[in-house]
What does this fold into?
Amino acid sequence: TNLNPMLALRIALCNQRWSESWRAIVTHVHQESFPTFTPQPVAPTTAANVITEAACQRLERTANRLAKRKQDPWRNNNWLFPKRHSPLHQN
It folds into this structure.
């Protein structure tokens, strides 16, 4: 299988074995292009995949916090007042 592909075609042509060599080449290319896969079994839905009311509320609170942060971007950046520091980092 480590032959030069052009050399393999030349050998097949010179040895009068073109038709059977060509069929083998087409079969090989077809198998590489369209591999057959075995279907994976579908996993049953477990309780971990079920969304609970608490998870929905937590997601909603997080979304609201992010939305508020986007409404007031100037409070989160130092570009307007570069010398002003956050009160959290003051002693």
Observations:
- The mean pLDDT is 76.
- DSSP finds three helices and no strands in the chain.
- Residues 21 and 27 are 10 Å apart (CA to CA).
- Residues 53-71 form the longest helix (19 residues).
